[in-house]
Amino acid sequence: MTLPASFQLSFDLSNIIGPVTRTVLRLGSLAVLHDINRSGSDGITELRLAALLGRHRVADYLKENFKSIVADSRQSIISRVLREEQLALEVGSGPTVQQAITNPNPAWLSMVIQMSLLAFSQEQQSLAQAITTVSCKLSRGAAVDFRQELDYVSVLGAITACQQQTAQFPWTGFFERTEDKIFKDVQNGQHRKRYRKRRRLNNATQQENLACVFERSLPFVILQTLVMNLVSIQDFPEHRNLHLRTYSGSSTIIVWCYYVLGIGVNVQINGVGMQFGDNPRIFLENCQPFEASATLLDAAGENEPLFKLSQVEEDPPIQGEDRTTARGFIRRILMLSGVSEKNVEAQAHSIAAHCIRLLSSTAQPSVLASLKVTSMASQVERNLLGAVAFLFDIAELDRCLVSELLGKIQQKK
User: Fold this and answer.
1) Which alpha helices (H) appear in 14-145, and where do they start and end?
2) 3-class state of residue 318 by DSSP
3) Source organism's superkingdom (predicted)?
4) Quick one: which of 39, 10, 6, 36 has its CA closest to 24?
């Protein structure tokens, strides 16, 4: 599909591939590009990705926080034989991140931060295919001779490099904070509307409607629009609004636009409104599956539509990656499924009691004797309680309550 002139304008005016390339070559960075290639990525591809994503200005606070967390790097020699071959195990920032941090052109760091975010929330292979497709569409629709089409293999290598070299950055906290806020606001909003009778039938439906939050994958049309138009939102904040309708990836959009780029986002889900930041320029609402769309509006012209893109069957699918911390993993799964805080705590103690019962009923007497599993104070049971507390993110389980539940379970047997 050929992109309209208004869609091309922000890209043609903001094309920075030339300045980025000249900066690298002027700094004598061919050796850096060589190191990037040796690490499994591709230096020229990263330059082109910097031209594509690096136009977006990252919020200062996140930029500094990101650099301080991912800057450390250390190497370990695997063996003396491999040392002679200059092969080592590298942990932390590699050539891609080091170049992004030290390069005076901010485009490279902007690209790495955004690629790190996308690699965290999207499956890498489908993300690489989607970015390659966006590049292809731009090359076909550009008003000038624009030859920087990306190839899938090189993009995948760059995504992998960004993900691996920035793995220590805590994207999990940004996503969970966003998803928890939306979930609680929607819950509270529906209670205020007093949909008591309907909500008896609505718990399962509610989870389907909230899939746009918990499912982090971006529909291709949303990814394409954000890649190409966030720069115009930042450059002309008083003249551009972006209206997005999506059935998945809301948390990814909010983390990307608000936390990373500092653009205010207004969200409408199931008739409940909430806002991230001041003066929102991105307006997000949920929709039915496969009906995603994006509309760029002229805010100065009474929100006159400048262009609209809608999802089509030919769009490449993007899969999501549901990453979270190990601590509290079960708690998060239950709470995202609508289980209340009180019931989560009760389930944790019940599961601990059932596990202890299962341990005592299946272990052989010789094993019990060797492990000295004789009471609630045993080491094995303490470890078991600790594991349950870890997965439910509870400081310490109530041993008396676990013992009480265990007694009830044994009576039923």
Assistant:
1) 17-26, 30-38, 43-53, 60-70, 80-84, 95-102, 106-121, 124-141
2) coil
3) Eukaryota
4) 36
What are the angstrom distances between the C-alpha of 246 and each of 24, 215, 217, 264, 283?
38, 11, 10, 17, 11
- Angle 133-135-140 (CA atoms, 0-180°, nearest 5)? 95
Q: Which token pair is 249?
A: 């990836």
> 3-class SS at 314?
coil
Runs of H (alpha helix) within 193-247: 196-200, 202-209, 211-214, 220-235
Which of 55, 239, 53 is closest to 159 using CA atoms? 53
Q: Give the least confident one: 157-171, 180-194, 398-412.
A: 180-194
Instruction: Place 1 in a pLDDT band, splitting at 50, 70 and 90.
Output: very low
What residues contact 173, with CB distance under 8 A and at least 6 apart?
none
**Could you give the CA distance from residue 317 to residue 338 in angstroms, rounded to a whole number?**
28
Domain boundaries, the chain: 5-168, 173-310, 329-412
In angstroms, the first-to-last Cα distance of the chain is 67
Which of 101-110, 173-182, 265-274, 370-379 comes out lowest in average pLDDT?
370-379
- Mapping DSSP to helix (H, G, I), strand (E, B) and coil, where does residue 276 land? strand
Tell me phi and psi for residue 320, to 5 degrees.
Answer: -95, 160
Give the C-alpha distances (Å, rounded to integers) separating 152 from 126, 134, 135. Answer: 10, 11, 10
Give residues with Cβ within 8 angstroms of 15, minimum separation 6. Answer: 51, 146
Look up residue 253 and give its two tokens. 């959009």
CA 390 to chain centre: 23
What's the pLDDT band for 258 if we cut at 50, 70, 90? very high
Task: Please report the sign of the dihedral spanned by the C-alpha atoms of residue 4, residue 45, residue 223, residue 18.
Answer: negative
pLDDT of residue 3: 45
Both tokens of residue 78?
Answer: 């695997």
Q: Which of 132-146, 197-211, 311-325 has the highest mean pLDDT?
A: 311-325
C-alpha closest to that of 58 among 158, 169, 134:
169
Does residue 358 carry a pLDDT above 80? yes
Q: Which two tokens stand for residue 368?
A: 């019990």
CA atoms of 295 and 98, how far apart (whole Å) = 37
Q: How confident is the model at residue 201 (pLDDT cuts 50, 70, 90)?
A: very low
